[in-house]
Amino acid sequence: MTSFEEAETEETVTCLHMTFYHPCQEKKMMFRCLNFGKREQVRADEMAKFGRDSNICHYNLMDTRVSRVQFALQFYRKLNSSEYCFEIKNLSKRTKLTVNQTELGYLNKIDLPWKCIICFGDYQILAEIQEGESMDYFETHLHLAEAPVLQERSLPPLQPVPENGISSSIFLSEDKSPTEMDENE
């Protein structure tokens, strides 16, 4: 056997891509402590905390309007599943956090969708999960946006799908609005 054949099987790593935006980022440099463009490993049993207190948070936002600990992300595996997920928890008593328009008060938490926009104050963060297999750690990959992520990469609104499986919105032109119809028509 060759050393190639005896080598450990490589496993993929879950990576959380986060694109940050603030309208005053060039003037106030609130992101100067974040490592953009470089992947960082976080142990699976640690919480990734974001805020302004460098003694508690690994991801520091240099802004007095940000809470000492703004929010935390916990990596976990779903029960009876091989799927890995993130949970986001608002740790700010003063500022509400929204995840795709779902508002989280202090100590509220939800599962992070595979692609979402996190907002608090004037901050906008596009979060995208790249799935992996590793149980020991995950990676973060931070990016800086030049334009608001809400405008640049707005998420499509979720629309209910009718029972027949065909969405009526694809038949509507931009000029027309929906009209009510009798089911016998």
TrEMBL record:
Any GO BP annotation: positive regulation of canonical NF-kappaB signal transduction
CDD domains listed in its UniProt record: FHA_TIFA (cd22714)
GO annotations of cellular component type: cytoplasm
Entry-linked InterPro entries: FHA_dom (IPR000253), SMAD_FHA_dom_sf (IPR008984), TIFA (IPR033621)
Keywords: Cytoplasm, Immunity, Innate immunity
Major subcellular site: cytoplasm
Residues in coiled coil: none
Keyword Cytoplasm: yes
Chain residue ranges for the region called Disordered: 156-185
Pfam families named in the record: FHA (PF00498)
Locations listed in the record: Cytoplasm
Residue intervals of the FHA domain: 49-121
Keyword Cytoplasm: yes
Membrane-spanning ranges: none
PANTHER family assigned: TRAF-INTERACTING PROTEIN WITH FHA DOMAIN-CONTAINING PROTEIN A, TRAF-INTERACTING PROTEIN WITH FHA DOMAIN-CONTAINING PROTEIN A FAMILY MEMBER
Family: Belongs to the TIFA family.
Protein name: TRAF-interacting protein with FHA domain-containing protein A
Originating organism: Sclerurus mexicanus (tawny-throated leaftosser)
